[in-house]
Amino acid sequence: MKINRRQTLGLLGSTAVLACPNILSAQEGPINVSALYDLSGGLDVYGAPIVDTLKFAVAEQNRNGGLLGREIELKVFDPQSNMQLYAQFGRQTVLADKPAVVFGGITSSSREVLRPIMRQFNTLYFYANQYEGGVCDRNMFATGVTPGQTVEKLVDYSTKTFGKKVYIVAADYNYGQITANWVRKFTADQGGEVLAVEFFPLDVTDFKTAISKIQQAKPDYVWSALVGGAHISFYRQWQAAGMHRQIPLSSTTFAGGNEHVILTPEECNGFMVCQNYLQEIDTPQNAAFVSAFHKMYGADYPYITELGVGAYQGFKLWAKGVEQAGTTDRMPVIEALETGVSVDGPSGRVQIDPQTHHTIMDVHIARVQDGGLVPVETFSQARPVDTAMSCDLIANPADTTQYVIEL
Predict the structure, then answer these.
(1) Is 300 left (phi over 0), alpha (psi -120 to 50) or beta?
(2) Which of 46, 147, 189, 306 could serve as a FRET partner for 131 with CA atoms 20 to 30 Å apart?
(3) CA nearest to 233, candidates 265, 270, 267
(4) Are residues 242 and 215 in contact, defined by beta-carbon separation less than 8 angstroms?
């Protein structure tokens, strides 16, 4: 089953523009915003929905008068899940387009390609994806969840609900490796045991051997930190082996790429996830957001992803920083955001944490059910406690380190 992407941007290595000409300030011209997300190359299951929500955010802002009386133009690049193209397009856009802010990167590798380029050319950078935490950089704001906000809560729930023995399967790169370490820590905190950990490159599609090992280990539940289109094969093979109804599965990555829409209910109903955003959140703000989003893209649009909403809410935070600063200039906007700017977004209140440049936000444990996510438990205003263990941009504003926290 393929996700319908008729509204997504698919021009490889090119730019697209979204603007509203009736509000343009002739004196200053439009405000350029650039986005670098994979619209092809294996990670497009994440990138395409993010671009859609950024397009929606820009259109919404322009309908409301733009920013500082100027329209916003969104320029989108497709790095095709290729780190060389991330570097090429990153340099190209900051030099040619001179954007006020760049949103971009899905994996940690792509973020770490973009981050030094943005610093070198004094361009504000927003990283909107969930990730392993630890990046401490005054020029970057992270608006996705970190393990300290979600993994701890889902491990606690899973241990109490399913049992204390867990088997971890994870993507073989920074996120998967570090997340597996957090699962180990939080499992030990609960008096539990990690039976084994297996890592898989992003292009692996054959998981039969791993599933056999899990069958032999007999865990109380499986933790998945698998990532990307290829890894969806694990869940199909898990169900084909008859394991879906035998051993529960918990994940903080599942559903981020609409896996619960791509897979059949028989393949994934009952999986447990923990996210900042669920389309089912029952608030007036979310109802209005979903209604307006479907008005733009159609009622048949696939599930609105947490990663997409992370970019949407990041855009809203940046826009509020611009309004507070009265300029799009980088340093005044950074200083405005560092006052603890917040927005009431579709997921609830989202606030910049000045110490880490990460966000304080609600998180929700949910159960996958028939292509949706049924809320089970909500945690209000979870803080990025993992990154705060090592990052203090108030005390050390020149820090540009990605810390790997020793557990």
Answers:
(1) alpha
(2) 189
(3) 267
(4) no
List, in order, residues 6 or more apart from 241 with CB less than 8 Å away. Answer: 208, 211, 215
pLDDT at 14: 41
Strands 400-402 and 135-137: antiparallel
Local confidence band at 26 (pLDDT 50, 70, 90 cut-offs): very low
On average, the pLDDT of the chain sits at 92
Return the structure tokens found at 398.
């020149």
Q: Choose the weakest-confidence range: 19-28, 162-171, 266-275.
A: 19-28
What structural domains and CATH numbers belong to the chain? Answer: 21-145+283-360+384-402 (3.40.50.2300), 147-275 (3.40.50.2300)
Across residues 162-167, what is the average pLDDT?
A: 98
The pLDDT of residue 19? 43
Q: Helix axis angle, 44-63 relative to 284-297, nearest 10°?
A: 100
Q: Which amino acid is located at 132 in the chain?
A: E
Q: d(Cα 234, Cα 240) in Å, to the nearest integer?
A: 10
- Top pLDDT among 293 and 245 is at 293
Residue 77 pLDDT exceeds 90: yes
Q: Please say whether the beta carbons of 191 and 218 come within 8 A.
A: no
Cα 360 from Cα 134, distance rounded (Å): 15
